[in-house]
Amino acid sequence: MTMFEPYPDYKDSGVAWLGSVPTDWCVWPANAVLRERKMKSRPDDVHLTPSQTHGVLPQAEYMERTGNKLVLNLTGADAMRHVEPNDFISHLRSFQGGFEHSLHSGKVSAAYTVLEPAAEAVPEFFRYVFKSSLYVQALQTTTDQLRDGQSIRYAQVSLLPLPVPTNSTQRAIAAFLDRETAEIDAFIADQEELIALLTERRAATITRAVTKGLDRLAPMKDSGVAWLGEVPEHWNLPRVAHVARCSSGSSIDLQSVEAARTVDAPHPVYGGNGIVGYFSRWNISEGQIVVGRVGALCGNVHSTSERAWVSDNALRLRVSPQKVDRDFLSHVLTARDLNQLADKTAQPLITGSLVLRQRIPAPPMAEQAAIASHLDHETAKIDATITDAREAIALSKERRAALISAAVTGKIDVRGLA
């Protein structure tokens, strides 16, 4: 934050999470800034849903926006709490991301804590205070029992003193952060859109090459396979079982998996989403394919180039090198999008027999190698751009968090920039 000036003078706040604050700022006990609203819900109150991602929304709007179905609370008013606009709500993930600022009147479950700001507290300023990383970190220290699924109670909130600048300073900081975070959020949204477009382009590039080949003038034939459509006339269409053998990975004690490669743990461990650590032993030799077997990551495909351990969350395919190029088959299985075939009656699951039944394109070996080399080159370029975009997002989020914390604790003077 070196591009911003500090305030003229500072004093010790006496509060660990705040540190030094500008001399004209007050530091108040939290119960002087917030009081708990325990008002019972009204008959016409709309049911509200607080979340880290979307803030506080009417439950119907939340379900429409996210596609998530929530269990409607049909209990009586005694089990619900009334919420006024500009109240703050402590929800089940507040220990991860702070309190949510409500712009709506309505009701929430009594499992949540509803906080009413004092007249001296500008809600727009405290919206940033309660989402700042420094405050959230301090909130985590107020109890030894914070965990997912547990709300933060008023007694815990009261343990953390809060910064209270003048009302004009609060408004200036809020206006500055509104503008700056909007610019950062817009940049992040652009990068996320870019990643989505590149991901689509990557998938289309792979599918085009493994189903149509590199020669756009090659005579075509109907493959009789829906996902392949027409393929070059000279290609064969075997099942995976004709070119590879499939087996499940082996269970592993995750505590024995090293986070980084070491002399004692030189072999990568593959789960459903690629390498998850390193292990001292291996259960596949080099040149095999790993397919995510269970859960949300089932169908993910990874090609190994060394000895590795495949966990029981994945399948391992040992290819016959005389019949198929390993990297070509890896691209084919990626294009096949095996996740769409998973049994989703309970937890998504792919079986080895399902993979082996799939009919795949099989050009001559030299052509397979050429397609695989082409795709390795093209996907590497796309992957590098995606990596750059993800790094830009991560840096932007870090800058956003640092800017908020610096502004609400008075480490930078933004009054003239609002």
Brief overview:
It is built from ten helices and 21 strands. With 418 residues, the chain is α+β, with helices and mostly antiparallel strands.
Low-pLDDT sequence parts = none
- In CATH, the homologous superfamily of the largest domain goes by the name DNA methylase specificity domains
> What topology, given as strand order, has the largest sheet?
4-11-8-9
The mean pLDDT is 90
Shape: elongated
Distance separating the two termini: 16 Å
Largest sheet properties: 4 strands, antiparallel
SS strand fraction: 15-25%
Whole-number tally of structural domains: 2
Structural category = alpha+beta
Q: How many alpha or pi helices?
A: 10
The assigned CATH architecture of the largest domain is: Alpha-Beta Complex
Beta-strand segment tally: 21
CATH fold label of the largest domain: Adenine-n6-DNA-methyltransferase TaqI, Chain A, domain 2
Quaternary form: single chain
The residue fraction in helices comes out at 25-40%
CATH class descriptor of the largest domain: Alpha Beta
Radius of gyration: 28 Å
Explain the overall architecture.
The longest helix has 46 residues, at 167-212. The chain has helices spanning 30-33, 59-66, 94-97, 123-129, 133-140, 154-157, 167-212, 326-336, 352-357, 365-408, and strands at residues 10-12, 20-22, 26-28, 34-36, 48-51, 55-58, 80-83, 88-90, 100-101, 106-109, 113-117, 162-164, 220-222, 230-232, 244-248, 267-271, 274-279, 288-292, 301-303, 309-310, 314-319. Strands 4-11-8-9 form a four-stranded antiparallel beta sheet. Strands 15-21-18-19 form a four-stranded antiparallel beta sheet. A hairpin with a 7-residue loop joins β13 and β14. It has two domains: 26-164, Adenine-n6-DNA-methyltransferase TaqI, Chain A, domain 2, CATH 3.90.220; 194-369, Adenine-n6-DNA-methyltransferase TaqI, Chain A, domain 2 (Alpha-Beta Complex). It is elongated, with a radius of gyration of 28 Å. The protein is an alpha+beta fold and 418 residues long.
